[in-house]
Structure formats: structure tokens, C-alpha cells
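Researcher: Structure prediction, please.
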Amino acid sequence: MRRRTGLALAAAAVLAWGEWLNWRWSHALVGRGAGASEAVVVLGYRNPQPTANVVNRWRVRAGIRSAAADTRVIFSGGPTGNGAAEARLMADYAKAVLEFDGTVLLEDRSATTWENITNVLPLLEDVDRIKLVSQPAHALKARAYLRRQRPDLAERLVRADDYRLGEWLLGKPLLALYGLWTLRRLTAGERKVAPGPETRPGRPG
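Model: Predicted structure follows.
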């Protein structure tokens, strides 16, 4: 009985840790934002098959639920191998399956997160609020890259609806472990919940 209780407590602690860390990442490097115009950038995940995979389908849903009625939604991601671009597959899923009829733009050349940010910059110049959508650790990485490339635009970052309590509950500890690895090169200032001072630009791998 004690062993079962101990295992249950340990499992609950692991789930709570994963939940908390993903919550924290979702609140880092974002402000409150002001102004009416808004862009939601949905970052693609490698997708060699001819339709959007489970990760990209979830990211599309998170992007659409993050968007207001007049928000432009930008799908960003290039082709994997000889297949269609991630951006195109996500847009097709949004329109054909989710019946999204809002404004959609495609950025279909990027192969890395750094390139995602570089290539969407021209599509963000005229908006007041910017939301970057992905799993929380990846979205934080993208926000840090925007901050390095264009700190003026990074001031317009606001929270997307890509974190919800209990969503991906069993997977969040694994996402947290992977996030710790992928965010290891960010500075302490880039991990802060509130925006900090600017960092020097650099192009990570």
C-alpha cells in the first residue's frame, strides 16, 4: 500500500512539474500588447507525409483558437524531403478540416526555427500584436529568436493560446525534458517571464 502511494505521489509530482514548466515557458518573453491588428504565426513541425501530422494538426488548432476574428494567421514551414511545404499542409488542414475562413498567409521556405522568424518578418511589420504558436518550449525559442533579430517587433509579442491546463498532460513531462535540452542555449534573460534587456544577435543552429 505504501509503495503504491509513493508511486502515485511520484507520478503526480512528475506531471505537476511538466505542467508548471510548460506554463512558465508559455509566459516568458511576452507582454500585454496594444492595438487592434494582430498576427498569429503557427510554426511547422517536420512533416514528410502528404497530410498534416498529429503535431502540426494540434499547432493549427492552437493557432486558430489564438486568433481573433480579424487576425491574419501565418503558417510557416518549408518542405521536408520531396513533400509539400509544412505551411501548405497546415493551411490545407485549417481550411478543409477545421473550416477556417479567416485570412491565411504562407511562409513556405523555412527549414529551421531561426529561418521561420527571419522569413516571417516582412509579414509582421504592420501589426500591433504578434503571437507565435507551437509547443511552449519551441514557441519560447522562437520568441527569443525574434527578440535577437528584431527587438522592436519583439516588443509586440503577446501570449498565444498554445498552453492549456491539462492538455497533453501525460506528454508534458517529456515535452519539459526536451524543452530543457532545446532551450539550453538561451540566456537567462531570454527565459524570464517578463521581457528583459536586449541580447546580442546571433544565429544558432
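Model: Residues 137 and 179 are 5 Å apart (CA to CA).
Researcher: Thanks, that helps.
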